[in-house]
Write a structure and sequence with these properties.
Length: 535
C-alpha cells in the first residue's frame, strides 16, 4: 500500500458558534479516486476550502507527500500541486483555450512578452493526455460545450503539474453522453498517479468511478469504505460497496435509518384545478393540453430541449403565451406572475441561485415575499409577527439556519431549496409548479422534499413536478407526462410506465405498452444520465 499523498488529521473549523468541522481525518493516496460524500452542510465544502488554502483550520494537521502542508492562500495550494475543479467553472469565456489553460502561469519573454511558441506545446500535450486533441488551443472558450470547457479546467491543472485534483459535483451540468467521457478522463488521471477527490450527490457515480470513499456528517467523518472490503461504521464491516444498498450508505450520511428513499404520503386526486388548453410559447412549448387535479402529483419527463421548463414558465407567466389558455378552477388567469400568484399558482424555479431566491436577503424575506398580507397593516410590517411565523415554517421544514435573519446565501443548497418550497407553501398556493426541486441536493434532503410534496397533495394541492430523475417521478407521482421537442407525447398513470418506455417516448419513439413499476433501487436512470444539463 502506497503512503498517502494527502493526510488531514483532526481538522477543526468554526465560524462563531457554528462548528463546521470537528476533528475530521481524511486521506488520499496517489493514483486513486476518493469520494467525499455527505449531506449539504455536512462540511465537505469547508474541508475542501481548508485544503485549498481559502480557510485556515482552527486545529489539526495536514501533510502533502509526507511533508507538512499549511497553505496560506489558494495560490500557495496550487503551487504545492493541489487543483480545484469547481461545479461553477472558473473560465474567461472570451479568451482562447490556451489563454485559459495558461492563465496565471504564462510563459514570457523578458518578464512581460507572452511566449506563445513555448507554451502552446504544453497546452496541446495536456489536451492529448486527456484524450481530446480535437480541442484546439486557439478556440474561444465560449464556443465550447460545457463538457469541453471542463476539459480546459482539467488541462490547466495538468499544466501546473497538479498531483491532487478535486472535482466538486463535476457532472451537475453535463448531459449523459459527456458523463462517461469525464469518467474516462478521471481514470486516465488516476492511472497517471494523480490523486483525485470526487464530490457528488449521485451515489451511483461513486460506484462507477471511485476506489474508496469517506462520509461526512455534521462536520465529522463518520464512515469510510472501498470497493473490496466495503464500508465500515465503527468496527462493524458492511458488505462490499457494490453489494451495499443506497439506504445503508444514506443512513451513514443522515445518521438515521432510512427505510424508504421515496416516501409516499396517502392522497387522493379530486376535481380539476389547473387546466392548460393548447398552450404554446414563443418557441416552446407547442400546443400542450393538460389537466392537474387537486390532491394529485403529476410528473413531467423529457430530454434537454423538450420544453418542460418553458411549459412551467408559461403557466406561471414568466414567459409569454403566444396561444392557448391557462385556467385555475375554471377561470382564466391574468397575465404575468402577479396575476398567477393571485390565482393560486406558486413556482419553485430550477435555478434557485439567480431566479428562485434573493441570495443576499434573509430567510424571513425570501419565505414571505409572495404573501406579506398577514403581517402588514397600513403599509407597515409587523416584523415580530412575521419572524414568529417564519420560525414555525423553518421548524416544520427542518431548515437549518442560525435565525430567520440569516442571509440565504449562507445556507447549504438543501436548506436553500427548503426555503424556496416553504415560500410557495406559505403563499398558500393551490397549484405548486416544481421545476427540478431535488437537483443538486443530498439524498437525505431529497427524502424530506418527497415527503413535503406528498403532504402538499394530501392537503388538496395540485402538484406539477418536472424532473430529469426518473426513479423519483415513477415512485412518487400519480401520473407521468412525457414531452418531446416541445410537444406532449403521452400521459399515463405512473404504474403503467417503465424507465425504458419513458426514454423511448422522450426521444420521439412510439409509446410502448405498459410495463411494471421500476424497483427504484438505483439512483440514476438512463434518462437522467442523458439529461442533467440545464434546459
Amino acid at each position: 500500500m502506497t503512503h498517502p499523498l494527502l493526510r488531514m488529521t483532526g481538522i477543526a473549523k468554526s465560524f462563531g458558534a457554528t462548528r463546521a468541522l470537528d476533528g475530521v481525518s481524511f486521506e488520499v493516496r496517489p493514483g486513486e479516486v476518493m469520494a467525499l460524500v455527505g449531506e449539504n452542510g455536512a462540511g465537505k465544502s469547508t474541508l475542501m476550502k481548508v485544503l485549498s488554502g481559502a480557510y485556515r483550520p482552527d486545529a489539526g494537521r495536514m501533510e502533502f507527500d509526507g511533508r507538512p502542508y499549511q497553505p496560506a492562500s489558494p495560490h500557495q495550494a496550487r503551487e504545492a500541486g493541489v487543483a480545484m475543479i469547481y461545479q461553477e467553472l472558473n473560465l474567461c469565456p472570451d479568451l482562447s483555450v490556451e489563454d485559459n489553460v495558461m492563465l496565471g502561469q504564462e510563459s514570457r519573454h523578458y518578464g512581460w512578452l507572452l511566449d506563445r511558441r513555448r507554451q502552446r506545446p504544453w497546452v496541446t500535450d495536456a489536451l492529448e493526455r486527456l484524450g481530446h486533441p480535437e480541442v484546439r488551443p486557439e478556440t474561444p472558450v465560449h464556443r465550447l460545450s460545457i463538457a469541453a470547457r471542463q476539459l480546459v479546467e482539467i488541462a490547466r491543472a495538468l499544466v501546473m503539474d497538479a498531483r491532487l485534483i478535486v472535482f466538486d459535483e463535476p457532472t451537475s451540468s453535463l448531459a449523459g453522453r459527456d458523463v462517461e467521457q469525464l469518467f474516462t478522463v478521471i481514470r486516465r488521471l488516476r492511472d497517471a498517479g494523480i490523486g483525485i477527490i470526487y464530490i457528488s450527490h449521485f451515489l451511483e457515480e461513486v460506484r462507477a468511478v471511485c476506489d474508496r470513499y469517506t462520509v461526512l456528517r455534521d462536520g465529522r467523518s463518520v464512515g469510510a469504505g472501498d470497493l473490496k472490503s466495503g464500508p465500515k461504521k465503527g468496527s462493524d464491516p458492511l458488505p462490499p460497496l457494490k453489494e451495499t444498498t443506497e439506504a445503508e450508505i444514506v443512513s451513514l450520511m443522515v445518521g438515521r435509518s432510512v427505510s424508504e428513499l421515496f416516501p409516499t404520503v396517502p392522497h387522493a386526486p379530486g376535481e380539476v384545478v389547473l387546466s392548460i388548453d393548447d398552450v404554446s410559447g414563443r418557441a416552446l412549448p407547442r400546443g400542450v393540453t393538460l389537466e392537474v387535479r387537486r390532491g394529485e402529483i403529476l410528473g413531467v419527463a423529457g430530454l434537454v430541449g423538450a420544453g418542460r421548463t418553458e411549459l412551467l414558465r408559461c403557466i406561471f407567466g414568466l414567459d409569454d403565451v403566444s396561444s392557448g389558455r391557462v385556467r385555475v378552477a375554471g377561470v382564466a388567469v391574468k397575465s404575468g406572475p402577479e396575476g398567477r400568484i393571485a390565482a393560486g399558482l406558486g413556482m419553485v424555479s430550477e435555478d434557485r441561485k439567480t431566479e428562485g431566491l434573493a441570495q443576499v436577503r434573509s430567510v424571513a424575506d425570501n419565505l414571505t415575499f409572495s404573501r406579506l398580507g398577514p403581517y402588514s397593516r397600513f403599509g407597515l410590517l409587523n416584523l415580530r409577527r412575521r419572524d414568529a411565523a417564519v420560525g414555525e415554517w423553518m421548524q416544520r421544514l427542518r431548515v437549518k439556519a442560525r435565525s430567520p435573519h440569516q442571509d440565504v446565501v449562507e445556507l447549504s443548497g438543501g436548506n436553500q431549496q427548503k426555503v424556496a418550497i416553504a415560500r410557495v407553501l406559505h403563499q398558500q398556493a393551490d397549484v405548486l409548479l416544481l421545476d427540478e426541486p431535488t437537483r443538486g441536493i443530498d439524498v437525505g434532503t431529497k427524502v424530506e422534499i418527497y415527503r413535503l410534496i406528498g403532504e402538499a397533495a394530501a392537503a388538496g394541492k395540485a402538484v406539477l413536478f418536472v424532473s430529469s430523475y426518473l426513479p423519483e417521478l415513477l415512485a412518487i407521482c400519480d401520473r407521468v407526462a412525457v414531452m418531446s421537442r416541445g410537444r406532449l407525447r403521452a400521459v399515463r398513470p405512473a404504474r403503467d410506465w417503465t424507465e425504458e418506455a419513458v426514454l423511448h417516448c422522450a426521444v420521439g419513439g412510439s409509446v410502448l405498452g405498459t410495463g411494471g413499476r421500476p424497483s427504484g433501487q438505483h439512483l440514476e436512470s438512463s434518462l437522467a444520465a442523458q439529461d442533467r444539463e440545464t434546459e
